[in-house]
């Protein structure tokens, strides 16, 4: 059950989701800015924690490049808040429990582990330009060095 596939140059799908700590964020909140949306499977798992720590460590550098980093997973806001507090994370995390944004961005897909298939988030990052269009896509992300690579792309945009 693959969801739609997005390409470079496509207009970023709109979203409006609750974030950790309260309130909502939507695509219009970032009008005129570069936005890094990173989709990850689950709070407080090894790869997801390392990725969030790496993006947090580079938050100032992203800001200097005119970019904002936002993480998205199907976990709840309560789970996100606990995750952020435990690891001293400083990036906004959106809760897509209904999986609507995950499907709109094409990252909710069939996965397999140990011979078992299931639906889950394929670790993916999107760089959205100030014009609201997708400038770069990283599919099936490997965490090591990923945040730094995204930062270089944001600086070059």
In the CATH hierarchy, the third-tier topology is known as Glutaredoxin
In angstroms, what separates the terminal alpha carbons?
33 Å
Count the beta strands: 9
Level-2 CATH architecture: 3-Layer(aba) Sandwich
The description of the largest β-sheet is: 5 strands, mixed
* Main β-sheet, spatial strand arrangement: 5-4-3-8-9
CATH class: Alpha Beta
Number of alpha- plus pi-helical segments: 5
Q: Structural class of the helices, strands and pairings? A: alpha/beta
Q: Specify the CATH homologous superfamily.
A: Glutaredoxin
Poorly predicted regions are none
Given the C-alpha coordinates, what overall shape results? globular
Write the H/E string, N to C: EEEHHEHEHEEEEH
Strand content: 25-35%
Summed over residues and divided by their number, the pLDDT gives a mean of 94
Rounded to the nearest angstrom, the radius of gyration is 14 Å
Fold topology:
Blueprint: E1 16-18, E2 24-26, E3 34-39, H1 46-57, H2 59-64, E4 67-73, H3 77-87, E5 92-95, H4 100-104, E6 108-113, E7 116-121, E8 124-128, E9 134-138, H5 146-156
Parallel strand pairs: 3-4, 4-5
Antiparallel strand pairs: 1-2, 3-8, 6-7, 8-9
């Amino acid at each position: 059950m693959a969801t739609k596939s997005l390409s470079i140059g496509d207009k970023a799908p709109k979203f409006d989701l609750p974030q950790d700590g309260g309130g909502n964020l939507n695509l219009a909140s970032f009008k005129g800015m570069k936005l890094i949306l990173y989709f990850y499977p689950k709070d407080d798992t090894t790869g997801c924690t390392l990725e969030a720590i790496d993006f947090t460590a580079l938050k100032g550098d992203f800001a200097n490049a005119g970019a904002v980093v936002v993480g998205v997973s199907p976990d709840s806001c309560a789970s996100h808040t606990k995750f952020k507090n435990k690891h001293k994370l400083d990036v906004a995390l959106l809760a897509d429990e209904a999986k609507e944004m995950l499907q709109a961005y094409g990252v909710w897909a069939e996965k397999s582990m140990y011979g078992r298939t299931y639906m889950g988030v394929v670790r993916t990052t999107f760089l959205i330009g100030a014009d609201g269009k997708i400038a770069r896509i990283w599919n099936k992300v490997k965490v090591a060095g990923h945040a730094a690579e995204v930062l270089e792309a944001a600086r070059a945009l």
